[in-house]
Amino acid sequence: MRASLTDLEGKSFDVAVVGAGANGAAAAQHLAAAGYAVLVVDKGDFASGSSSRSSRLLHCGLRYLAPGGSIWDFARNPNALGIAVRMARQAMQMRAQIVETAPERVEKLNFCFPVYRGGAYAPWQVALAFRLLERLGPASVPLDYRNIAGPEIGRTPLVRWLRDRGRLSSVAMFREYRFEWPERLAMDAVLDAERLGAVARNYTSVSGLEKDGERGWTLTLSDQLRPQDIAKVKARIVLNMAGIWIDRVNALAGSGARRRINGTKGSHIVVRLPPDCASHGIATINRIDEPFYCIPWRGLHYFGPTETLYDGDPDDIRVTDDEIDWLIDEANHMLPALGLKREHVLSTWAGVRPLGADPDFPKGKRSREVHDLAAEGMPGVYAMTAGPIMTHRSAGAELTRLVAAKIKPSRAPRALSYAARPFPENQNSPPLLDDYTQIKLSDLKHAAAHEHPTSLVDLMFRRVGAAWTQTMGYGAAERAAEAVAAEMGWDAARVQEEVRRYRAYLEHFHGVRPGARAPAVQPQA
Q: Quick one: which of 22, 440, 442 has its CA closest to 241?
């Protein structure tokens, strides 16, 4: 049962973490391991914001070394090159760490980067970028970089459909990884933070933020599911890890903190390509000099992302018809043989990146930064912008070092665990889904009993990943809700309401069409 928020009334913590996406969860985990008394809250479910809506690549950092128009842009802006190398190093190091410590949470892919004659990047520049990446990361998780050309291009799945084959100078092939579903990494971190003594609450918003003399801050917490439940807690340091909601949290202090977020929207479409493409993906530059991907995913592929400024409702982010058309057009430009049409789109998703607000970066500053808000009337409050999900662990370590320079821990340190938290083995349990049999009904029940879900959406998306499949669990929703009814305390009426809400969520946020069957793409020879 969900603990009452009033149980926290008057409690004091060393650190309050506001926002439990991947970076907030990692901060809570690292701080709790270092011996700090930690509270981590999120106004929604754990990792239900931008962490759940990324392109899902545990990428090698190649995009940081591709400035857009030309590699010579770095020569004109050496500072940008330094930032790019730093971000690429973080990407390579975290790529290796996650693959080695939680291999269950990632999938290895064969990726390519096509190099065209007369394009933005010459073959030697692409080769230089990959050699640099190899030096920036540990050899234990290699890039497997190599070039292919000529007849081999025509024999390689997906690659053989690239546009303008006659202009292809070469194709850089390399090893890339994709998160199985990023929310689970955040859940692993939240659960480990709890094991280490942290207090973690989802659906708990910060509705007030006041200075508490010289001792820190008083936070007013509100339960989003039981509005009558309110509690005030104290914290010596506040980490604002609220992502695209950072500015709203800062505004609660009434200090006039300047704008920190300049979010860009990334939209994606999901289609079914021929089976021989199952482990092959493409990373390229689109016609407006921005990264564009075709990424394999559980027997499907998705194309994206868009890169557009977003100033709409942060709680209602979804793909528009215009964005679907743009993505289809870019996909057909990259792979004209596909003949992709609207009817091929199975589902969609979109998220907004919490990039930094900086006049020198019109579409947001991508380098991860921690902002000390003391000069803006908020001493002891720090906000982090532009933290990509792939480097969330290093973000947690960085924030722990920052806190350690300010206050001492109140408890003894303990060892954290980066290992994936598997569900108990139960070979006798039937699968939840027909289209993805790895997920068992017993997994769903265990998550319902032990991992703080409050709805079927929480369970299917963030706990077992059943929503991130071809059918997105649309038809299995009733079976899932009935299976966990006892653990969740749902009667028959609540089961039906959860099913209705889940399906409405899929239709609204993912463009799922009830009863529709999107055909597989049949590329032209």
A: 22
- Selection from 18, 15, 14 nearest residue 253 by Cα: 18
Segment 396-419, tens digit of pLDDT:
999 999 999 999 999 999 999 999
Q: What local confidence, expressed as pLDDT, does residue 68 receive?
A: 56
- Sequence length of the chain is 525
Q: Do the strands 230-240 and 217-223 form a parallel or antiparallel pair, or are they unpaired?
A: antiparallel
Between CA 94 and CA 113 the distance in angstroms is 21
Alpha-carbon gap, residue 274 to 521, rounded angstroms? 7
Buried b (16+ CB within 10 A) or exposed e, 312-339: eebeebbbeeebbebbbebbbebbeebe
Classify residue 42 as exposed, middle or buried by CB count within 10 Å of its CB (0-12, 13-18, 19+): buried
Chain centroid offset of residue 82 CA: 25
What string of H, E and C letters represents the secondary structure of 420-449? CCCCCCCCCCCECCCCCCCCEHHHHHHHHH
Provide the CB-side half-sphere exposure for 76 (13 A, CA): 6
Closest CA to 473 of 449, 496, 507: 507
List, for residues 138-169, the tens digit of each pLDDT value.
999 999 999 998 899 999 999 999 999 989 99
Write out pLDDT tens, residues 42-92.
999 999 999 999 999 998 988 888 765 555 566 566 677 788 888 899 889
Domains of the chain (ranges, CATH numbers): 5-51+183-261+368-404 (3.50.50.60), 57-178+263-358 (3.30.9.10), 441-510 (no CATH)
What are the residues whose beta carbons fall under 8 Å from the beta carbon of 113, sequence distance 6 or more?
62, 126, 171, 172, 174, 282, 283, 284
Distance CA 220, CA 211 (A): 12
Q: What are phi and psi of 169, to 5 degrees?
A: -80, -45
pLDDT in tens, 312-346: 999 999 999 999 999 999 999 999 999 999 999 99
In which residue ranges of the chain is pLDDT below 70?
67-78, 525
Q: Please state the pTM of the whole predicted model.
A: 0.95
> Residue 212: CB partners within 8 Å, gap ≥ 6?
218, 234
Chain mean position to CA 146: 29
> Tell me, what amino acid is at 432?
L
From the list 196, 102, 99, 197, the residue with the least C-alpha distance to 416 is 196
For residue 122, what pLDDT is reported? 86
Assess whether the previous peptide bond of 296 is cis (omega < 30° from 0).
no
Strand-pair partners of 40 = 17, 200
Note the pLDDT of residue 337: 96
Q: What is the pLDDT of residue 75?
A: 59
